[in-house]
Amino acid sequence: MQTKQLIIKSFTLLIGMITLTLTGINWSMWWAAWLAPVFLLFYFRRAKKFDFVIFFLLLFVSGMLSQTGNNLFHLPVVNVINGIIFCILYSISYLIDRLLYGRHKPFYYTLIFPSVAVLVEYFASFAIGTWGSIAHTQFAIKPLLLLSAICGIFGVSFLVFWLAPVVNLIIENYDNRKQWIKGALIYAIVLCTVMGYGTVRMYMNKPEPDNGIVKVAAILSDIDIHEVVLSEQQSLKQLADGIDSEIPESLLSDSVAIKIMIERTRQAVNEGAKILVWNEAALVLDHNQKKQLLDKEKQFCTDKGVYLLVSFLETNSNSGDKPFNNVNMLITPEGEIIWKYKKSFLHPYAEAPIVNRGDARIPFIDTEYGRLGTVICSDLDMPHFLKQAGCEDINILLVPAFDWEGITPFHAEMAVFPGVEYGLSVVRANGKGLTTFTDYLGNSLVSTNSFVSDEKIVYAEIPLLFIRTIYTALGDLVIYLALAYLVFIFIGCRLRK
User: Fold this and answer.
1) Taking the model in full, what pTM does it have?
2) CB 369: neighbour CB atoms within 10 A?
3) Across residues 446-470, what is the average pLDDT?
4) Closest-CA residue to 288 (of 314, 262, 322)
5) Which of 91, 185, 340, 494 has the highest CB neighbour count under 10 A?
């Protein structure tokens, strides 16, 4: 009997860890996200002291294997840190479920595990954004993706995590049908309702041509900012350490690179584009280069009646601050610069040491094409920050970005969720990786991958139809209900003791 139990435990742990590894950045399999918690919860509820050690060790290994894609410069220490963070965050829901759950409990006890899991995702998002959220694995399941318009991304995560305790309820009480049949039916009804709602919305809320369209162009640079950083590592390290040194001329974009971006912008306007977006860090400019470029582009926008979002890395002239700003500026048809936006959430070791952080305020402007707003690349990963987009009723979010191969196409798929949550279109001009144009239903209008295509100007026609979603009005109600529920369960357990 003990041998049989050992085989069952080993099998469930092995399958659980393999499927868990397939839910990370590197593979992101939608079906694995549903299976992994089922097997791991079965194992953890029966684990002894030594079993816990094996569980946490394998979690650490799984985290290292599944998250290597976000290690930009392939540093071994980053993989170790990823494994540690993954192990800590992912194990919390299993630990609390083990403490509060017992066999032959009512169905509502199955809500413990998903409630803790989404709370972990929510609080972790203040530090690392939605990286690691299980909801991202469901990008290909369109009806489920559309649930985020009601409950946000954490509502999608809750539904996926909830399956595990429901299946384990059936397994643990299989001979007592009364114990689990109602619960299984409740979950099945909720899941079918969600999928039905999403399916209907996919076909009933499609934008019609009569609503109008605007032609938008993403202008992509030839400059690979990652290669620039690697080639100037020593100089940048000195600048990061506060050593008084000049920014090397080799870091700055030459006249040829600037001319190419200007010519591509002109070409896109000639093709009918009314809104143009440069990718993140399309150029690296000092003060004089920036002034000359902006003077030229302001006149051009006035002559052509277009909106141009220029995005570049600028040298910072304020003494005492870090040497660079990662910015974008929107030039209107009146030749005015409406905003200068600084990237607010920086890559911890590629940007933070040398780039000044922005004020975390999303700028916007009302235009004949709706309300335009902007963030830059990883800003789009921070859900607490993006609430501003919903509160301000932004219609088209312009997002200069710059990825790398390890997070392509995963990072671009992550960017679809905020558009669905707040009912807005997202224009993501990506200098390296996947450039995407998506509408408020998460439909891909146009996309191109720089790793398989040489396109430097990408066009899309954005429908001028926007909605105010239920999630915009309710906010993170799922989180508040999950927290209230856990408090209720905890108090109930204490009173019984």
Assistant:
1) 0.94
2) 18
3) 94
4) 314
5) 91
